[in-house]
Recover the amino acids of this structure.
């Protein structure tokens, strides 16, 4: 069964790196990309052109996004009874303590800062795969909603 | 900041676990993996809350950076401990990872509903258990950014 991962990321370079790293690490991953906060919410709510969007098993969420900021996307996910159990990992360039604290307050499952170096970025994506998509028990997608 | 960046300060981990064998395995695996960890152990849910609330004999307990929580505990069940942690403004941001024998879907879903940061089931085999603890150390205590202290 494929593992559905939603990547919310506006930088095309980082999208590509992430796609390639997941592709190398785990062929079962289907990576969906939303490039701004509003597109992410449409995907998650099966709205507009996203009516057939699958429910993600895991969300990787950048904080600094156009149209709707990642902090707001996070808040909306975690306030929504039908979405809040989806593990949501912040993956962002910011290392600011205020951003880290705020993300955990908004119930992010985990916070990771994106490495600058290419090979470290790949290693990080692989460790996300190793830990979250191989070891962690993710909630099953029985339709509670 | 990531736990290892805290300028040489210890990482305070609270393990809530009633099985002495599993406590020992976890202690050894963390010790092998990361010398900066101070592992504190509570063997039932009531003791866990006393530690977290710094009451009684635990008045001087440090605030944990990270919590590993079994579900099936004496006195107060792990599900209740989890609920208390995540409802308490002063405790809710502490990453709380369920580490339990149960693989029941109901337990997994309930834990995420109660806002567990993630859910892991304990392997039966010794080596796999050690590897899991090491991967917890590697991901959560080395790569992840944990909330700032205080």
């Amino acid at each position: 069964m494929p593992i559905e991962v939603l990547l919310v990321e506006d930088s095309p370079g980082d999208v590509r790196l992430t796609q390639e790293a997941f592709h190398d690490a785990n062929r079962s991953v289907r990576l969906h990309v939303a490039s701004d906060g509003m597109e992410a919410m449409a995907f998650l709510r099966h709205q507009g052109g996203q009516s057939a969007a699958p429910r993600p098993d895991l969300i990787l969420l950048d904080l600094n996004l156009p149209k709707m900021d990642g902090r707001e996307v996070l808040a909306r996910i975690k306030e929504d009874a039908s979405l809040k159990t989806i593990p949501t990992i912040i993956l962002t360039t910011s290392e600011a303590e205020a951003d880290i604290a705020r993300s955990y307050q908004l119930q992010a499952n985990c916070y990771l800062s994106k490495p600058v170096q290419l090979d470290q970025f790949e290693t990080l994506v692989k460790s996300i795969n190793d830990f979250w998509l191989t070891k962690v028990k993710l909630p099953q997608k029985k339709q509670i909603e | 900041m990531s736990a290892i960046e805290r300028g040489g300060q210890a990482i305070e981990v609270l393990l809530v676990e009633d099985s002495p064998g599993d406590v020992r395995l976890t202690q050894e695996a963390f010790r092998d993996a990361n010398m900066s960890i101070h592992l504190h152990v509570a063997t039932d849910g009531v003791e866990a809350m006393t530690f977290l609330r710094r009451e009684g004999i635990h008045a001087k307990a440090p605030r944990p950076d990270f919590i590993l929580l079994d579900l099936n505990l004496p006195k107060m069940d792990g599900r209740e401990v989890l609920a208390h942690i995540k409802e308490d403004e002063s405790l809710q941001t502490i990453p709380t990872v369920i580490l339990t024998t149960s693989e029941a879907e109901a337990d997994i879903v309930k834990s995420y509903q109660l806002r567990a940061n993630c859910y892991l089931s304990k392997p039966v085999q010794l080596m796999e258990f050690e590897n899991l603890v090491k991967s917890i150390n590697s991901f959560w205590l080395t790569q992840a950014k944990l909330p700032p202290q205080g």
